Automatic annotation (TrEMBL):
This is LPXTG cell wall anchor domain-containing protein. Keywords: Membrane, Transmembrane, Transmembrane helix. The chain crosses the membrane at residues 12-33, 63-81. The lineage of its organism: Bacteria, Bacillati, Actinomycetota, Actinomycetes, Micrococcales. It comes from the Bacteria.
Length: 90
């Protein structure tokens, strides 16, 4: 009996790992909170506010980076599944 890591890849396994990676990317990069910080000064011209999107871990993130990472992961998964399906004569 061959160990699981030596068995040939299946299309379902490729899509499963693609989905796992998408979930992990979403946990790391998805913007879920908006944080606003204001800095006051005695001189009104020097007072300002900053706004940032935060992920689950509290890291600053951007919705466009998250979307690009999800699309890139989906494209790589699709290409791997397509290439595997083309080589597999089943």
């Amino acid at each position: 009996m061959t160990p699981p890591f030596l068995r040939p890849r299946s299309t379902a396994r490729i899509w499963l790992w693609t989905a796992v990676i998408v979930v992990l990317i979403s946990l790391a990069l998805a913007p879920v909170l908006t944080s606003t910080t204001c800095y006051d000064s005695p001189d009104p011209a020097l007072s300002y506010c900053e706004s940032a999107q935060l992920g689950f871990a509290g890291n600053q993130t951007n919705g466009w980076i998250w979307l690009a990472a999800i699309l890139a992961t989906g494209a790589v998964g699709w290409l791997l599944a397509r290439r595997h399906k083309r080589r597999d004569p089943r």
